[in-house]
Amino acid sequence: MEEIKTMGIDQLQEKLRKKEPVFILDVRPADQRKEWQIVESTHVDAYKGLNNGDNSILDEVDIPKNTTVVTVCAAGRTSLIAAEALRGKGIPAYSLEGGMKAWNYAWNTAEVNLSADLKVIQVRRAAKGCLSYIAGSANEAIVIDSSLHPDIYLKLARDNGWTIRYVMDTHIHADFVSRTKELAEASGAVHIMIDRAKVDFDFTPVSEGDRLKFGSNLLEVLYTPGHTWESTTFRIADRLIFTGDTLFIDGVGRPDLKAEHDEAARKARSLYHSLITLLSFSPSTLVLPAHTTQSVSFDSKLIGESIAKVKATITLSGFSETQFVNHVLSIIPTTPPNYLTIASLNKSGTYEGHQLQDLEAGGNHCAIA
Fold first, then answer.
1. Tens digits of residue pLDDT in 101-117
2. Per-residue pLDDT tens for 174-226?
3. Using CA atoms, how far apart are residues 296 and 301, in angstroms rounded to an integer?
4. Using CA atoms, how far apart are residues 257 and 277, in angstroms rounded to an integer?
5. Which of 231, 232, 228, 229 has the alpha carbon at shortest distance from 219?
6. 125/109 Cα distance (integer angstroms)
7. What's residue 275's pLDDT?
8. Whose CA, among 53, 275, 279, 364, lies 20 to 30 Å from 286?
9. Closest CA to 134 of 168, 103, 178
10. What does the pLDDT read at residue 315?
């Protein structure tokens, strides 16, 4: 029987969820690791050495005993060389099959019970930092910004005794291909979007101030343009706001995607006023964004902060409109080359003919400080 030398992402994420002893060795170049990573991994920049046949480059790696060893690279080729090198030293290592491109779809959750009648599950794509949500009340649920296969959200709903009533996106995403349309079809839920959304598929439009009932809770629609023209925030009383890419816990959404300088300035002005509105809510209101700029650990710790904490963290919250616009336009980073393609696919509602592993590879670049 051929010896198994690789490990799939499902196996590794299950080990991390169960807190099993595992040593993950990332052998990619430093610039690739900086872009995105497995938080629980150890890094050795061994890419060139391994591909040049220098197995001694791993000699100084301190690998704990009685642990499962998994090597990682971008696509699973160099990590297989690393695993073979470690096996030659008597260490039974495995290569992560598909590398970081496959790990892009590894996920974990964190939960918060805001009251007896409201539970929120944060679903996190570990590598990319995408955050989606399923919120349940009584026997009904909503799903916001789904970025993973519909089966994941359907199972979470079933496990909690919920029927998914509404699904929605906070905006037309540019860093991942939305799965909300697919989830609506798979679940039978109502697919809602703000009435200003310009997409090529049917949805149920909602407007500023509309309220959607699920269980014993009401989800309020807030139009918060700036990151995109259709950006929407969803609010549940003074308990929480799902802010999409408008407001993060450590930054705000970039206003430039698909925009020339003049339009970016107009979007920045709109973003300023949207932020004024959001930051005026009760200081205890929980901010739950659609992304984090860092890769996510399997630690079950919710990525969210109170309005009070966010205001204290984000320097931009104290700027005048002119200061805000000028500063934002001065620090906007280069647009990743895949973002415009992804945004166009989300506008069309289909990604047929595209390889998502390649298209969605890389970290998140929607936020500015």
1. 999 999 999 999 999 99
2. 999 999 999 999 999 999 999 999 999 999 999 999 999 999 999 999 999 99
3. 10
4. 22
5. 232
6. 9
7. 96
8. 364
9. 168
10. 81
Low-confidence ranges of the chain (pLDDT < 50): 1
- Cα separation, 160 vs 331, whole angstroms: 43
Q: What six digits make up the tokens of 138? A: 């009584």
SS3 labels along the chain: CCCCCEECHHHHHHHHHCCCCEEEEECCCHHHHHHCCCCCEEECCCHHHHHCCCHHHHCCCCCCCCCEEEEECCCCCHHHHHHHHHHHCCCCEEEECCHHHHHCCCEEEEEEEEECCEEEEEEEECCCCEEEEEEEECCEEEEECCCCCHHHHHHHHHHCCCEEEEEECCCCCCCCCCCHHHHHHHHCCEEEEECCCCCCCCCEEECCCCEEEECCEEEEEEECCCCCCCCEEEEECCCEEEEECCECCCCEECCCCCCCHHHHHHHHHHHHHHHHHHHCCCCCCEEEECECCCCCCCCCCCCCEEHHHHHHHCHHHHCCHHHHHHHHHHHCCCCCCCHHHHHHHHHHCCCCCCCHHHHCCCCCCCEEC
Please provide residue 271's backbone torsions phi and psi, each rounded to the nearest 5 degrees: -60, -40
Place of tokens 């990619």: 28
Pairing of strands 131-137, 140-144: antiparallel
Nearest Cα neighbor of 216 from 192, 236, 242, 189 is: 236
| Burial of 68: CB neighbours in 10 Å, binned 0-12, 13-18, 19+ | middle
pTM flag (> 0.70): yes
Q: How many residues does the chain have?
A: 369
- Using the Cα atoms of residue 270, residue 273, residue 279 and residue 285 in order, give the sign of their dihedral: negative
Amino acid 159 reads D
pLDDT at position 257, please? 74
Is-contact 317 59, C-beta < 8 A? no
Distance between CA atoms of 324 and 226, rounded to whole angstroms?
12
**Would you say 275 and 246 are in contact if contact means Cβ atoms under 8 Å apart?**
yes
pLDDT of residue 258: 65
